[in-house]
Structures are given as structure tokens and as C-alpha cells.
Design goal:
Helix content: 40-55%
Number of helices: 15
Radius of gyration: 20 Å
Number of strands: 10
Order of helices and strands: EHEHEHEEHEEHEHEHHEHHHHHHH
Number of domains: 2
CATH architecture of the largest domain: Alpha-Beta Complex
Strand content: 15-25%
CATH class of the largest domain: Alpha Beta
Largest sheet: 10 strands, mixed
Distance between the termini: 46 Å
CATH superfamily of the largest domain: Spore Coat Polysaccharide Biosynthesis Protein SpsA, Chain A
Length: 341
């Protein structure tokens, strides 16, 4: 941490791709922060719209960097390389921070100088529904006055900790020790990054009150493409397989296993919901030690006739929304047209 009496410089990194319709709201939320010791870096990942013009209209308040299209992970790496700050914070081009986000996180980190990274709860917004991703009251009770969780894996898997990239702030020395975002992932570069950090720095600072807003109805073409690719679960399977080995090698298999199971269950449910018979059965076969036999059996039964099963599940979810029985912002995007048509 900085010397006594000094506040640390925060480098805010925003990867942007065809973001002209959303990036102004995102940048404004950073410039409105009550904490003022920051630099803002926008990495344009090969946009073909007017993203550059919008970002450059802010003048010297924003550092604009252009690169050929390579994905969010490489764009974040470009931002990390250009960063001058002691700490690096991340924000996606279509989301926003609440005004006290950086101030509260810096205060937490200054109270706990041993911490090397920090996250926070956030809100999901879609179809006029806005709700906290994690139960703020329960999280506050679970933390019992502490500023951190002892292990990222167990915090996310079993303690209700809601974490996404847009709330993360990481000391630059972490990337020097662990490495940066791996460009081999289409979807899971951020998950892989946080999991790799956990082996070296398991303790993570956390604020249970929401400090950012994830706009699920601001999905652009690139995000929609990645969302569709995620249905198959290929990246999820590769990610869990990789980290089962890393967790065992780092003596954290017991801590990682519940999180691996959680990721696979979600991937399996997505396969079944979209009628992807081969992918669902691949997941069930590949992880017999993580997925219980009865769950694997259900997966096989529900994919005997995958299309009717998928249609029935979609109808049930749609009916629940129509009747007002389900108001979940995280699922509302199923009924939103893609932002770019």
C-alpha cells in the first residue's frame, strides 16, 4: 500500500468493442467517483463503430488505446501493461459503477494492508428489474464484521459471495506473480484469472453492498455471440478440468471442488435447457467424481428427447415471467432482443 498519508493511484481498465451506445454511461460512472486518485484507460478492441469518437470526446480525462480485435482478455492485458497505478480495477464497456465504489474499496484495502485484491456485490439490471446478485443481508451476517473471505473458492461456492470482473480491484504485483489474462479462452478468461490468483492469494476483500450495475439488456453483437457459444459448455469443461489439476497441485482441491461442481451443474442445466444432447452427456461422462450419479442419470433421461424437453423448459420459464411468479434480472435477458438487432 502507499506510504502513510497518501492514497494509492488506481488504474481503471475498460475493454471496449463496438461500444458507442453504452460507453458514455460507463465512462461517466468512473468520472463521477468520489475517490479521485485514478486514471481511466479505455482499450478499443478493434471497434468498427464510433467508439473512438465517443471516448476521445472526453479529452485528457481518458487514455484511449486502439488494438486489433483480440477479445476482452487481451484488451485487459493491454490496459494492465499501460497502467501506472498501484492497483488496477476493471469495468466492462456496458456496465457502470456506483459513485462510492472505489472509495469504499480503497478504505477496505487500507484497513487490511495484507490483502492483494478486493471485490464487491453488484446489481443486475434487465427489463426494468434491478436486484442485487448476492443477498446483502445474508452476506453481511456471514462476514460477521470482517472485511474479507479467507478463500475465494469457498466464498463463491458455499458462502453466497457474488463476484464479477466489474467489481474487482487487484494489486499490480499480483499480475507480476500470477501472470495476466490467458488469451486461449473465448469465455472464461476472467474465471481462469481469479482462480489462478486464489492459489497464491486465497484471501479476498469483499463489500456486501452492491457497488456496480451489470446491464444485461445492453448485450451487443459480440456479447451475444459469446453468450450463444457458452451454451455448449466447452470452455467450462476445459476450465474445470484444468483447475482440478492445479487445485490438487496447490493443495486446494477440497476448497475448489464445490466451486467446480457449481460451474458444471450450471453448464449442464444450460445444455439441457437449450436441447444440446451431446454436450450435456459429455459433461456428465467427463466428471463422474464431481457430478453425483443421480444428477448424471437425470441428464441422460432429459436428453433422450432433447428438443421437447427444451421446449417444455422454455415454456415453463416464460409462463413464470408472464404470471409474475419469477422476477429475476439474471434471467430476463432471455426475453430481450439483441442490442444490435
Amino acid at each position: 500500500m502507499s506510504q502513510a498519508g497518501e492514497h494509492p493511484m488506481i488504474s481503471v481498465v475498460i475493454p471496449a468493442y463496438n461500444a458507442e451506445r453504452f460507453i458514455r454511461r460507463t465512462i461517466d460512472s468512473v468520472l463521477a467517483q468520489t475517490y479521485r486518485d485514478f486514471e481511466l484507460i479505455v482499450v478499443d478492441d478493434g471497434s468498427t463503430d464510433d467508439t473512438r469518437e465517443v471516448v476521445e470526446s472526453y479529452g485528457s480525462r481518458v487514455c484511449y488505446i486502439y488494438q486489433k480485435n483480440a477479445g476482452d482478455g487481451p484488451a485487459r492485458n493491454t490496459g494492465i501493461a499501460a497502467a501506472k497505478g498501484e492497483w488496477i480495477a476493471f469495468l466492462d464497456h456496458d456496465d457502470e459503477w456506483l459513485p462510492n465504489k472505489l472509495e469504499l474499496q480503497v478504505a477496505l484495502l487500507e484497513r487490511n494492508p495484507e490483502l492483494r485484491w478486493c471485490g464487491a456485490n453488484f446489481e443486475r439490471s434487465c427489463l426494468h428489474v434491478r436486484q442485487a446478485a448476492g443477498d446483502t443481508e445474508k452476506l453481511t451476517q456471514t462476514m460477521a464484521g470482517r472485511d474479507y473471505f479467507d478463500n475465494f473458492f469457498t466464498a463463491v461456492a458455499t458462502q453466497g459471495c457474488a463476484l464479477v470482473t466489474m467489481t474487482m480491484i487487484v494489486h499490480r504485483e499480483v499480475f507480476e506473480q500470477v501472470g495476466v489474462f490467458d488469451s486461449c479462452w473465448a469465455l472464461c478468461a476472467d474465471f481462469d484469472m481469479w482462480w489462478r490468483i486464489t492459489y497464491r492469494f486465497p484471501k479476498i476483500g469483499y463489500l456486501p453492498q452492491p457497488l456496480g450495475i451489470m446491464h444485461l439488456d445492453a448485450m451487443g453483437v459480440a456479447a451475444a455471440r459469446y453468450h450463444l457459444a457458452g451454451k455448449s459448455g466447452d470452455d467450462a469443461r476445459r476450465l474445470v478440468e484444468k483447475h482440478l489439476k492445479l487445485a490438487e497441485a496447490n493443495g486446494m482441491l477440497a476448497e475448489f471442488t464445490p466451486l467446480g461442481q457449481k460451474v458444471l451443474r450450471k453448464s449442464l442445466a444450460t445444455n439441457i435447457f437449450h436441447g444440446l444432447k451431446a454436450d450435456a452427456r459429455n459433461t456428465a461422462r467427463q466428471f463422474p467424481t464431481l457430478l453425483p450419479w443421480h444428477l448424471r442419470g437425470v441428464a441422460f433421461l432429459l436428453t433422450v428427447f432433447p428438443k421437447p424437453t427444451s421446449a417444455a423448459m422454455r415454456c415453463l420459464v416464460h409462463l413464470a415471467y408472464r404470471l409474475g411468479l419469477k422476477r429475476d434480472a439474471s434471467r430476463g435477458r432471455l426475453y430481450v432482443k439483441k442490442a444490435d438487432g
